Amino acid sequence: MSESEATTAPVLAPDLGFIVDLVKPHSTVLDLGCGSGDLLKELQVRKKVFPQGVEISEECIQDCVSKGLPVYHGNLDEGLADFDDQVLDYVILTNVIQVLHQPDMLIREAARVGRQVILSFPNFAFICGRLQLGLKGRMPRTDRLPYEWYDSPNIHLTTIRDFDELCRSQGFRVMDRIFLRTSGGTCRRVRFMPNLLADQAIYVISRS
């Protein structure tokens, strides 16, 4: 990486670094719900990908444009009708599916458009959340799910076990799974009992 590229590369959350490592250089990437474009920019700088993004927030779109990223305005709940089948190497959804009205539909659309889909989501079955719900009888609040029940953007929370079942029922091929513990200012892989001990999951899936 050149000095000029290093100065333009964003500082990513540690879990996003795992996603960067999953993407092959010089590939085509569509980031759905790309936010301010930090992940796309990192992929462009480090992996020399051909990036595109879809985002609903005009402010975030302007941030992406300022980074030199081609990002388009779109509502992900309306699908990806503008994209042909298997036209991209990767479609990425980072912490997006839980805020959608029809997450299963968008995952199917992403798998139609991309040869591989990389997605991440907070694991609602994480032990800290279970303890809050079980012992206090209140909706959990964790580092990954910091909202109150009445102001949360998350409308379709899921667990690792539930997502595995979705992949089976929808016929998706699970190519890789990475489970992380990101609470407490750390980020480390979880290899034992991830549905209990991981607060974040990253999947790589494709159409069978």
The major pleated sheet works out as:
8 strands, mixed
What structural category characterises the helix and strand content? alpha/beta
Radius of gyration: 17 Å
Strand content range: 15-25%
List the helices and strands and how they pair.
Layout: H1 3-8, H2 14-22, E1 28-32, H3 38-47, E2 50-55, H4 58-66, E3 71-73, E4 88-94, H5 103-113, E5 114-122, H6 127-136, H7 160-170, E6 172-181, E7 188-189, H8 194-197, E8 200-207
Parallel strand pairs: 1-2, 1-4, 2-3, 4-5
Antiparallel strand pairs: 5-8, 6-7, 6-8
What does this structure look like?
- The chain is an alpha/beta fold and 208 residues long.
- 34% of the residues lie in helices and 24% in strands.
- It contains 8 helices and 8 strands.
- Strands 3-2-1-4-5-8-6-7 form an 8-stranded mixed beta sheet, sandwiched between helices.
- Helix 4 links the parallel strand 2 and strand 3.
- The chain is globular, with a radius of gyration of 17 Å.
- It starts with a helix and ends with a strand.
- The model has no long low-confidence stretch (mean pLDDT 93).
